[in-house]
Design a protein that fits this description.
Residues 1-19 form the signal peptide. Residues 405-439 are annotated as: Disordered. Residues 410-439 have a biased composition (Low complexity). It comes from Nocardioides fonticola. It is a single chain. By secondary structure, the chain is mainly beta. 8% of the residues lie in helices and 47% in strands. The chain folds into four domains: 2-13 and 38-123, Carboxypeptidase-like, regulatory domain (Immunoglobulin-like, Sandwich); 128-211, Immunoglobulin-like (Sandwich), CATH 2.60.40; 214-295, Immunoglobulins (Immunoglobulin-like, Sandwich); 300-401, Immunoglobulins (Immunoglobulin-like, Sandwich), CATH 2.60.40.10. The strands form eleven sheets. Strands 22, 23, 25, 26 and 27 form a five-stranded antiparallel beta sheet that branches. Strands 30, 31, 33, 36 and 37 form a five-stranded antiparallel beta sheet that branches. Strands 3-2-5-6 form a four-stranded antiparallel beta sheet, with no helix packed on it.
């Protein structure tokens, strides 16, 4: 009954908002229609195990589990507008990490179609929890950091209080490995395996920090340029404990590391693929170690230009250009500039069967393109299938966008031929990754 009530409230709220603002008119109405038909809606209700309404963040991930953005479920209801494709939605309890009654994150996978609507019902359950007291040098480790990691590369973190006591709730069902360091990141201790923790189950542990920690500074560049924002993970070769930090001006600094050698997992940056490095440098107790990692493998690029089919020397701006792979999955979307050009980059690997589809941008709410007095109605066109090679630039021949068959201006010529069929932007990926998201 609660779920049904939430559905009704959500639908009523949306209708009331529309009624309150009034129907859009003119260009605004056209743009809204274009936006609605070019995206799909995902909506639903979130309840707790007893039918309660929890305060929840809705995190949105792409099909490959790359993070996109987050929003909040309000009053147990949520509504999203998403471009066609497959997404993972993660519903996370907003209560603090030390609350042992916190619900575990709940994941749902959805496929969005243009103009479609998908309802998702989510019932969360209480997570497992850890508790105990951390010690450093025989005394309680005030405000120590406790991290629980699992085989899905999810990390859950909490801090001890002034007496070294801690609790960590909201843990999904699985086994965990716990490691701890003090608030000054001076002392560390051996990791602790918990065994499997089930929903609502608690496990007491006693971390003991007896080893002086070391530091590791890593320089990271991509094609000779310093990177920023890229996530780097340092994994102990001996224990499997790991620390994560982000690059700033090409440098990553890890504190509170256990002595030993590390494997470095460096995330991708722009057009450059990530890499895994095994530097020979050793982190020593109370010392600072320095090493360097370069990203050297660059993705493929696709470039081209969109022109007027009736006047091939005239480039067209404001054209939506979409790149698809051989399975019909959308790889990227661009908008041409005043020179009609577009470029697709990113971490594209060697592959065949790719195509580019061009059309007036639906977000503009109009199929008019060009500059007066040659501003005309246009339709869509696509390239023949082509291949790309990692590290190389694939330049495409000019793609001529045909005029629509109906025109209301004498200066605009009708299309001489209809464009070939293009793949649907709502084509779903053939498979979804089985890995769980980072948390």
């Amino acid at each position: 009954m609660l779920v049904a009530l939430l559905i009704a409230v959500l639908a009523t709220g949306v209708d009331a908002a529309r009624a309150g603002t009034g129907a859009p008119s003119g260009t605004t109405a056209a743009a809204e229609t274009a936006r609605t038909t070019a995206t799909g809606r995902v909506w639903g209700a979130v309840v707790g195990p007893d039918g309660d309404v929890p305060k929840v963040d809705v995190r949105i991930f792409a099909a490959d589990w790359s993070y996109l953005r987050a929003t909040r479920a309000r009053g147990g209801a949520f509504s999203l507008r998403l471009a066609p494709g497959t997404y993972h939605l993660q519903f996370a309890d907003r209560r603090p990490s030390y609350d042992i009654s916190k619900y575990a994150p709940t994941d749902r996978t959805v496929t969005v179609t243009a103009g479609g609507s998908r309802f998702v019902s989510v019932r969360m359950q209480r997570g497992g929890f850890l508790y105990g007291t951390a010690y450093a040098g025989g005394a309680p480790a005030k405000y120590a950091t406790i991290k629980a990691t699992n085989r899905y590369e999810q990390t859950y973190t909490t801090k001890a209080d002034g007496r070294g006591r801690f609790a960590l709730g909201g843990l999904p069902r699985t086994r965990y490995y716990v490691f701890t360091y003090d608030r000054t990141q001076t002392w560390v201790g051996p990791g602790i395996g918990t065994g499997r923790i089930d929903p609502g189950e608690g496990r007491g542990i006693t971390p003991r920090l007896s080893t002086r920690a070391g530091r590791l500074i890593v320089g990271v560049d991509a094609g000779g340029q310093a990177v920023r924002g890229t996530v780097v993970t340092a994994v102990s070769r001996r224990t499997g404990q790991f620390w994560t930090a982000s690059a700033r001006r090409g440098l990553v600094s890890f504190s509170g590391l256990a002595p030993g050698r590390y494997v470095l997992h460096v995330g991708g940056y722009g057009d450059w693929f990530g890499t895994t490095a095994r530097p020979a440098v050793r982190v020593r107790s109370g010392k600072v170690a320095v090493t360097h990692v370069s990203l050297t493998r660059r993705g493929a690029q696709v470039t081209g230009r969109i022109v007027d089919s009736a006047r091939p020397s005239v480039p067209l701006a404001e054209v939506q250009v979409v790149l698809y792979d051989a399975q019909g999955r959308q790889v990227g979307v661009r908008r041409t500039g005043s020179d009609g050009r577009f470029t697709f980059g990113g971490q594209l690997t060697t592959q065949t069967g790719m195509i580019v589809v061009a059309q007036p941008d639906p977000a503009n709410g109009s199929d008019f393109l060009g500059v007066e007095p040659n501003r005309c109605r246009f339709t869509r066109a696509q390239t023949a299938p082509f291949g790309v090679v990692t590290g190389e630039v694939r330049g495409l021949a000019d793609l001529a966008l045909p005029h629509a068959t109906t025109q209301d201006r004498p200066s605009c010529l009708p299309a001489s031929a209809s464009p070939s069929a293009s793949p649907s932007a709502s084509t779903s990926p053939s498979s979804s990754p089985s890995a769980s998201p980072r948390s």
